[in-house]
Design a protein that fits this description.
mainly alpha, 66 residues
Length: 66
């Protein structure tokens, strides 16, 4: 598992938090994952995932997803 520095004094944006999750799931250094800090939106993160033969897929009804 990759260790992510956790500075509790920082407030992370949702996009950056998403990037942290991706780094953990993919076991990739956080520095390699696009984030809001780099002004990257989900479309570009989708492209980045595509370069790794991965993709984001929409969930039809996320509130009921289990």
């Amino acid at each position: 598992m990759n260790e992510i520095a956790n500075d509790h004094t920082k407030q992370f944006s949702q996009s950056y938090s998403f990037s942290i999750c991706l780094a953990q799931i993919l076991q990739t250094p956080i520095e390699d994952v696009p984030s809001a800090a780099d002004h990257v939106d989900l479309t570009k993160i989708g492209w980045w995932l595509g370069t790794r033969n991965l993709a984001l897929v929409p969930v039809k009804d996320p509130q009921s997803f289990q």
